[in-house]
Design brief:
The structure is a single chain. The protein is α/β, with parallel strands linked by helices and 232 residues long. Helix content is 36%, strand content 23%. The strands form 3 sheets. It has a 7-stranded mixed β-sheet, sandwiched between helices. A two-stranded antiparallel ribbon has the order 3-4. The chain has a two-stranded antiparallel sheet with strand order 10-11. Strand 5 and strand 6 form a beta hairpin. The longest helix has 15 residues. The radius of gyration is 22 Å and the shape is globular. 31% of the residues are buried.
């Protein structure tokens, strides 16, 4: 939507944005300034499906309340390439929802992606939510391995630790993930940080290789005993 079409037509705005950088354009023409010290001002985006992806999920229920309203909950699904060490965020579902809806959405994403493992923040009531998630997914016939994560370090430090991975493209977002992108670009002054916090859980889970097992056939010496064959 153009505010002044006769003076600033679309093509001109596109040229300004392409030539001067997105941050300057957002600050000067979109009234959306990003601090020069922002750690995640220029995220890298993925575009193509990768057959090497191993799927992981992370969920931050964020059941606290701010201003009388529940905080947004964050559900993230990522595809991790173990060869390149790159994590691509495939789903960044960040919005306010009741606990029943959180569980319903996680089960739905598990049906679609069949994640190897989920990281679920489990502090106080959130641990009950994780237990209920496992119970409900079992009743629904969906295998959903969920690992409880209890943060032991400061949230700001956890989020800051993502910076080198984001800056060199080892964590990539998708252009459609506007809420997560904005929370990262405006961190630590964004209204909410549920998305970046869940992203840290997702990345830690992926790089740990948790839940991924490689099996190797072990040959043994065949021993014949009567009419049966055994391996020793």
């Amino acid at each position: 939507v153009l505010s002044w079409p006769s003076v600033r037509p679309l093509l001109l705005l596109m040229r300004i944005r392409a030539g001067g950088g997105h941050d300057a354009f957002d600050s000067e023409l979109q009234n959306d300034p990003v601090a020069s010290s922002a750690l995640f001002s220029e995220p890298t985006f993925w575009t193509d499906h990768n057959a090497q992806w191993v799927y992981y999920g992370a969920m931050d229920p964020s059941l606290g309340r701010v201003g009388g309203r529940g905080d947004p909950s964050a559900i993230l699904v990522g595809g991790y390439d173990r060869t390149s060490g790159v994590l691509d965020v495939l789903v960044a579902d960040i919005r306010r929802r009741v606990p029943d809806k959180i569980i319903e959405d996680v089960i739905r994403y598990q049906r679609e992606y069949k994640c190897t493992l989920w990281a679920v923040e489990a502090v106080q009531f959130q641990e009950f939510l994780r237990a209920e998630l496992i119970k409900r997914s079992t009743l629904a016939g969906v295998r959903l391995p969920a690992k409880a994560v209890k943060p032991s370090t400061d949230k700001d430090l956890r989020i800051e630790s993502l910076q080198p991975y984001m800056s060199d493209g080892r964590i990539r977002l998708h252009q459609d993930q506007t809420t997560l992108t904005q929370q990262l670009k405006h961190w630590p002054k964004a209204d909410h940080d549920d998305g970046p916090d869940a992203l840290h859980m997702l990345h830690e889970l992926a790089v740990s290789g948790a839940g991924v097992y490689a099996y190797k056939r072990v040959s043994g010496r065949r021993v014949r005993a009567g009419s049966r064959n055994y391996f020793s």
